[in-house]
């Protein structure tokens, strides 16, 4: 069956190779690993956009604001699972790239257990104290009601989502992004269908949106678990890795290694979330409608960065496997070609959304005044998305070598040295929205400059040392 995304990625790789910009063989490998992840993220991020659009239509702006506040806490907890998953991909790739690929199985088992262990306390906390947590931002009764409902019910999805992201990254480390793409994209489609049924059909509003997420993520987790234990899934096919339900004793050395590679990524994710608490307060000071417009801009930027997730996963796996074979030159070549390949994709997609900004803004509202307010935010998001994409590609290169400190440095620089202070100027001076727009762009481009410097230095190749396998 013809797949336009596969065709687009492979064709672009061939065209770039034809003019000598990248190597054709490496370009095709990059494309083959990137497109499934891109498709997965397009489906999942489209879900997030559809989610708030449906809620906005069903319950109004109070529901959107409530969900925005709930998502901050939700992302804070998920930062731990994402960090552990990010550390997993490099460790799996380095083991899968050796003559003992089965040595990667203990990494998956330990990552899953560690992820669940750190996520469960958040689920309990959010269920018991959701109302108080939302009141940190607002005392408005409607906002608190919607926000606490979404946070309390949606917290259970965190357990499933942590398992899903670890499983996806593990398979990517084993040179397979097609399987997680198939499973998670299907889950996203199911989620959208459930949203429509529960939000509109049964008129459950925000509660329906949260329940839909829990059910969809749970089904995805069951699919991954079956595939890893049974060795594959019907229709989708065999898994490149298998995990035994009777995995042997705890390997303390492996846990330490996983923590060493994951902690910088966890710190980066936490830094990305924590900044949103004061940021939301500052944005509200600029104007009452700015919070909603900023949330729309953030979702649009994330959707544009679906390709960034694909290139990051692709290069992380390819670099990790090359370093696992002690081929530093190949690792550097994959890194260089992926940066060039991805940069062109980011610029093209950003330019398209910039040109269609009024149309994109119209997806979130039918009110002409609201569309007019959101349009410049969408345009700024398209410019910011290029910087975010470059950062994600550089991040993937560094992840593949287990060098994750510089991704932390870059992200924190963009958030705390650029985004927050410049937004503060917008809230406290006459610069207003101009400063807010500048902050959104500076955040991602600043992070890209820091991580790009590290990648270009070439020093990341020497940080990857042979790792003992767990028996």
From TrEMBL:
Pfam entry (one): MatE
Bilayer topology annotation: Multi-pass membrane protein
Keywords: Antiport, Cell membrane, Ion transport, Membrane, Transmembrane, Transmembrane helix, Transport
Domain of life (superkingdom): Archaea
Primary subcellular site in the record, as a coarse category: membrane
Biological processes annotated in GO: monoatomic ion transport
Organism: Haloarcula salinisoli
Keyword Transport recorded: yes
Name by which UniProt lists this protein: Multidrug-efflux transporter
GO molecular function ontology, one term from the record: xenobiotic transmembrane transporter activity
InterPro entries: MATE_fam, MATE_MdtK, MdtK-like
Location in or out of the cell: Cell membrane
């Amino acid at each position: 069956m013809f797949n336009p995304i596969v065709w687009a990625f492979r064709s672009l790789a061939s065209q770039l190779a034809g003019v000598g910009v990248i190597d054709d063989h490496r370009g095709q490998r990059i494309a083959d690993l990137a497109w499934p992840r891109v498709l997965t993220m397009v489906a999942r991020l489209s879900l997030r956009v559809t989610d708030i659009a449906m809620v906005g239509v069903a319950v109004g702006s109070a529901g959107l604001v409530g969900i925005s506040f709930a998502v901050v806490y939700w992302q804070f907890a998920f930062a731990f699972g994402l960090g552990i998953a990010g550390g997993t991909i490099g460790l799996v790739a380095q083991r899968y790239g050796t003559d003992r690929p089965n040595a990667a199985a203990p990494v998956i088992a330990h990552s899953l257990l560690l992820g669940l262990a750190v996520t469960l306390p958040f689920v309990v906390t959010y269920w018991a104290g959701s109302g108080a947590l939302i009141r940190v931002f607002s005392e408005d009764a409607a906002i608190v009601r919607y926000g606490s409902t979404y946070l309390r019910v949606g917290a259970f999805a965190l357990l499933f989502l942590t398992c899903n992201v670890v499983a996806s990254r593990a398979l990517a480390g084993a040179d397979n992004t097609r399987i997680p793409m198939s499973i998670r994209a299907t889950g996203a489609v199911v989620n959208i269908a459930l949203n429509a049924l529960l939000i509109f059909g049964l008129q459950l509003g925000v509660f329906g949106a949260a329940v839909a997420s829990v059910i969809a993520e749970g089904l995805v987790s069951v699919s991954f678990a079956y595939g890893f234990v049974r060795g594959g899934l019907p229709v989708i096919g065999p898994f490149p890795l298998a995990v035994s339900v009777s995995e042997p004793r705890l390997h303390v050395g492996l846990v330490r290694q996983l923590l060493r590679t994951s902690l910088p990524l966890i710190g980066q994710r936490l830094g990305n979330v924590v900044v949103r608490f004061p940021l939301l307060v500052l944005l509200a000071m600029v104007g009452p409608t700015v919070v909603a417009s900023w949330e729309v801009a953030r979702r649009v930027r994330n959707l544009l960065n679906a390709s960034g997730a694909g290139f990051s996963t692709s290069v992380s796996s390819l670099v990790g496997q090359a370093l696992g074979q002690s081929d530093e030159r190949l690792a550097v070549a994959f890194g260089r070609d992926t940066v060039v390949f991805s940069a062109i994709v980011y610029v093209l997609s950003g330019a398209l959304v910039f040109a269609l900004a009024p149309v994109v803004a119209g997806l979130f509202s039918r009110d002409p005044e609201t569309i007019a307010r959101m349009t410049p935010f969408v345009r700024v998001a398209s410019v910011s998305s290029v910087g975010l994409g470059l950062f994600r590609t550089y991040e993937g290169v560094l992840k593949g070598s287990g060098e994750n400190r510089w991704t932390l440095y870059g992200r924190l620089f963009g958030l705390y040295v650029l985004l927050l202070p410049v937004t503060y100027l917008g809230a406290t001076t006459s610069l207003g929205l101009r400063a807010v727009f500048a902050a959104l762009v500076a955040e991602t481009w600043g992070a890209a400059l820091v991580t790009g410097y590290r990648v270009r230095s070439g020093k990341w190749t020497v940080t990857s040392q042979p790792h003992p396998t767990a028996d």
